[in-house]
Amino acid sequence: MTGRLSSRAFLNSLLRTYGIFFIFLGMCIIASLLSPAFLTKINLINIVRQISIIGLIALGVTGVIVAAGIDLSSGSVVGLTCVVAAAFAQLPSGPRVLYPSIAGSPVYLSIAAGCLVGMLAGAINGFLIAKTKIPPFIATLGMFSAARGAAMLFTAGRPVSNLSDAYNFIGQGDLFGLPIPILLLAVMALFTHILYSRTKFGKYIYAIGGNEQAAHISGINVTKYKFLIYVYAGFLSALGGIVVSSRIGSGQPGLGVGYEFDAITAAVIGGASLSAGGIGSIPGTIIGALIIGVLNNTLDLVNVSAYWQQIIKGVIIVGAVILDQQKHKAVI
Amino acid sequence: MSRMADEYLLVMSDISKQFPGVCALDKVQLMVRKGKVHALMGENGAGKSTLMKCLLGMYVPDSGTIIFKGEKIKIPNPHDALSRGISMIHQELNPIPHMTIAENIFLGRETRTWYGLVDMKAMNKKTEKLLAQLGIRLSPTTKMVEVSIANTQLIEIAKAVSYDADLIVMDEPTSAITEAEVRVLFQTIRSLKEQGRSIIYITHKMDEVFEIADEVTVLRDGKYVSTDPVHTLTREILIQKMVGRELTDMFHKEQTAIGETVLEVRNFTGRKFRNISFQVRRGEIFGIAGLMGAGRTELLEAVFGVQRPDSGEVFIRGSKAEIGSPADAIRLGLALLTEDRKLTGLFMNAMVMDNMAIANMKKYLRGLLVDFRKICADSEKMRSLLQIKTPSLKQIIKYLSGGNQQKVLLSRWLLTEPSILILDEPTRGIDVGAKAEVHRLMAELTHQGKTIIMISSELPEILGMSDRIMVMHEGCKTGELARAEATQEKILQLATGTGLAAA
Fold this sequence. Notes:
The complex is a heterodimer of chains A (332) and B (503).
Chain A: H1 7-34, H2 41-66, H3 74-89, H4 107-130, H5 136-155, H6 165-172, E1 174-175, E2 178-179, H7 180-198, H8 200-210, H9 212-217, H10 222-248, H11 259-269, H12 282-301, H13 306-329
Helix pairs in contact in A: 1-12, 2-7, 2-8, 2-10, 2-11, 2-12, 3-4, 3-5, 3-10, 3-11, 4-5, 4-10, 6-10, 7-8, 8-10, 11-12
Chain B: H1 2-7, E1 8-19, E2 22-33, E3 37-41, H2 48-55, E4 63-68, E5 71-73, H3 78-84, E6 86-89, H4 101-105, H5 120-133, H6 149-162, E7 167-171, H7 179-194, E8 198-202, H8 206-212, E9 215-220, E10 223-229, H9 235-243, E11 261-269, E12 276-281, E13 285-290, H10 296-303, E14 311-316, E15 319-321, H11 326-331, E16 334-337, H12 341-344, H13 352-357, E17 365-366, E18 369-370, H14 372-385, H15 402-415, E19 420-424, H16 432-447, E20 451-455, H17 459-465, E21 468-473, E22 476-482, H18 488-495
Parallel strand pairs in B: 3-8, 3-9, 6-7, 7-8, 13-20, 13-21, 16-19, 19-20
Antiparallel strand pairs in B: 1-2, 1-4, 4-5, 9-10, 11-12, 11-14, 14-15, 17-18, 21-22
Helix pairs in contact in B: 6-7
């Protein structure tokens, strides 16, 4: 069965593996031709900072999609976790303190509280999907609505402002000359990449997404690992919530609307397959998020209206899926 | 050309097709006469499926010509193939379960009334006529969920005929049906021949070729080997053509020292099996025979913890075993090679080495991380031990042939170092060469003191390989035979429930 690889076949396999990276490079070249402002340090840092929140969420969403699931609740979980974390970080001396008993807590407590709430939301998703076996679409659609409602209820619909400097530092501060959200994304991306590609947990979620029945027979505790990937996705949504609220210095129950779709878009552009399961990668997803960032940035730089930007993003996600299907068709 | 066109319905010549890393077809030819059954044979990976996909418009060949009904044609898509009168019955059938037979047959070209709605009455009537014409006794309004696999097969044929196909490709149509149902299928094939239709018949089963085919074309490693009239061939010659070497012994059975009882199943009862008990000994091959749907797979899946039985106990080496999940079974030294590679075995989009390592991941951990070098080393060992043909261990497994995929699955279980292997139809749908290798491996494993429980629907395999044979019929154990006393007739009697229980 071994045959030689023709040069065309070689090019095909190269494109299949790194195609999205070439597209990204091409976009950068076009952007730098369109606007001299693109290739400046400030602008490049700006792009990455803008995608850092979506990027964090997309890391978890990638795992969920690899496990043949979907998470529609990320944006709502961002809204819920950011108000919870902000309530802990509120200055007790300021006006309109939401919960005086917890306001003024140290920053690590804010972070812990936000993360725990995110993981709890993920655990509920995971339980519904893994244990009661309802479709991920339905379970996370329920959480999409419930988490947003919980955020509104928790704050009576009002923003949670006057946060501590320490908290705001997460979203606004610099470390080693780079904004903290970028560093956080880099660290979490690296960690998640190792988690998905080099650990038992990672191997198992790929197996479960690829063929659940075969995974079960191979001795994998499908229920447990399905549950865990949603918990992990909830955790990353919480990090997104903490970053977004600390960046604008205010936790608002309405934050994060539509983030779930941006995260899914990043994962899908990066090669995660909504139709097959067991396919997707963190480097791909990061490139996917960067493509969205560069696209938004370029369109801003050349003064394309925000309305057009939405249309173009829609075209791109559909285009990415069409490309994805083409490349699968070519080899069946 | 015109005389050729009179005699030959289809002439494919110099067909080549290349995939990344693999030359699937290399100047292959196939000539099918009118009103004849033409068998297409070859080991898995020989290129039969690829050639048929070129004919059906699922692939476009890189080069070569196709002449159909005397006319040189290109077939860009399956729809075009259908409209020219070429249709295929796939090995895996995909009916729409909650639609009726008539709805399935006329799917996508429903008869309409004059006001535009679907005319069920007319469709049912047409279907009834069609089924009667082929001697299929089923009602057009039966839902597909209620139809057996064998009848689904026949309905697929009816569907092909309803397209007025002149050429029908059948891909291993008997792989999932019983002997009696094979008779009905062959009857139908003969009546198709009488109507002047041609059939390309893909199979691994020698008996069928000699019974039903007029001519045989053999492919090997993507290359054309020969085309001969069946009556000029013998089994031995045909096998030799397929494997390119002589196969002296089909069943590599060796006498091994049989030891103490290692596994005992007591009073197992579940949805598809009732009150089954048996014992298996060290170094033994324990065959389980029966017809499709006798509950053999379900029984052993319950033993392995895939689905828990309603009642019953398992003892391993004398002590009671609690098997609540496959993970428990693996810990206790059991392995289960499942019947359906695609559905319950393979991770199609994963690499060969990941497919091998997945059931054994705990052994590959170094700290929290997976030790890839160890996986590589073990996979490489398995590749050379089982002679798995793959360009690389990193190859995505869906590009491998069925036989090689099966060997990868066997590797997966061997790597868990089991003491008891449950093999459910270990050689179904794989070619003669790979089959012999699997049998040799089984003999080797029992030599090492391992125990094998084998489900097989092929009587020669059961008879050739087993030390003892348990026979099941409709969920019940109808008998147990020692190797010496087992015959084809006795097993069939027990399997059909006509014999007395010999216990």
